[in-house]
Amino acid sequence: MPPVRVGTRRSTLATTQSGHVAEMIRQRLGREAVLVEVTTDGDRSQAASTSLVGSSSTGVFVSALRDALLRGEVDVAVHSLKDVPTYPAEGIVVAAVPLREDPRDVVVARDGLTLGELPVGSVVGTGSPRRAAQLHALGLGLEVVGVRGNVDTRIGKVRSGDYDAVVLARAGLSRIDRLAEVTEVLDPLQVLPAPGQGALAVECRADDELATALAVLEDVPTRAAVDAERAVLATLEGGCSAPIGALAEVVEGEDEEELWVRAVALSPDGTLSVRMSATGSPADAVGVGTRLGAEMLADGAGQLGQPGPAATTEADKVREA
Ligand SMILES: NCc1[nH]cc(CCC(=O)O)c1CC(=O)O
């Protein structure tokens, strides 16, 4: 049998993630696997240093890999699940969602500091509207600025003294072996991660028999959790342009497993938010997430997209205080 061709972007994070999946394919499917680099429009525009903020709300990274998959240039595409759009792609299935890494956001700050220890007016870099809104909502008077580029570039902004801190996904740092840089792990009670953060999507062509074989890479509780988180996101996207955080977990209940979901939608400046949680059966993950999203819309999550004048004034007060 020919080796399984695993498509990957060129970044350290992407090749590490894809290499990890290739290794699982060798061990659990007993098939040879090779990495095939796919250059994306996103990588090209980053190389040309145009204004691409962090990752891919547009999904450019994801779609280039999917195109290579559909053209038959690769057999498997590995994505960070949080970068994958919630709507399905024609002819492609998520054949497996492996066990996920710690999904929390972390801080890399100067002098080993935590967010709470940073003085008012400290500059914190993030390209993520979700992180920016939640940083503002902490009420610490932090100045949040955009930051582009890969994980190394972003940490470099702290090293160079340009920024006092940056906020990143713990999973990304873990995968490229940079956890030593972390100065604080953010409690999801204060900062909820992106839906799907820390998890990988292993995709293949829907009509490829590889789809069935790849199922051995699946971690069932992780799939339930990310299905719920992404259902919250998909439901809110229908009526709301606000930044969204969500985190689900399968926990041992009295006599059966239970699925917990927490979610938040915020105005971009963090002054307004709708925060809710739900529990249900892991077997009904999409239902639990969808109902939670609908409840959040009923509670005004759809009105958070644009901050009102009152909200802006409040934020200014905090900054001047
Ligand atoms: N935004 C880009 C991106 N996409 C996936 C990860 C990290 C790995 C993950 O969250 O699964 C990152 C870096 C980050 O957000 O710090």
UniProtKB/TrEMBL annotation:
S-(dipyrrolylmethanemethyl)cysteine modifications at: C240
Biased composition (Low complexity): 300-311
Coiled-coil segments on the chain, per record: none
Secreted listed as a keyword: no
Porphobilinogen deaminase C-terminal domain residues: 225-297
Keywords attached to this entry: Porphyrin biosynthesis, Transferase
InterPro entries: HemC, Porphobilin_deaminase_cofac_BS, Porphobilin_deaminase_N, Porphobilinogen_deaminase_C, Porphobilinogen_deaminase_C_sf
Molecular-function annotations in GO: hydroxymethylbilane synthase activity
Record PROSITE patterns: PORPHOBILINOGEN_DEAM
Cofactor note: Binds 1 dipyrromethane group covalently.
Secretion signal span: none
Family matches, as Gene3D superfamilies: Periplasmic binding protein-like II, Porphobilinogen deaminase, C-terminal domain
EC number: 2.5.1.61
Cofactor (UniProt): dipyrromethane
Keyword Transferase: yes
Region entry Disordered, spans: 300-321
A Pfam family matched in the record: Porphobil_deamC
Reactions it catalyzes: 4 porphobilinogen + H2O = hydroxymethylbilane + 4 NH4(+)
Similarity section: Belongs to the HMBS family.
HAMAP family: Porphobil_deam
Subunit structure: Monomer.
Record's function text: Tetrapolymerization of the monopyrrole PBG into the hydroxymethylbilane pre-uroporphyrinogen in several discrete steps.
Extra information: The porphobilinogen subunits are added to the dipyrromethane group.
Database matches in PANTHER family: PORPHOBILINOGEN DEAMINASE
Protein's name in the database: Porphobilinogen deaminase
Species this protein is from: Nocardioides cremeus
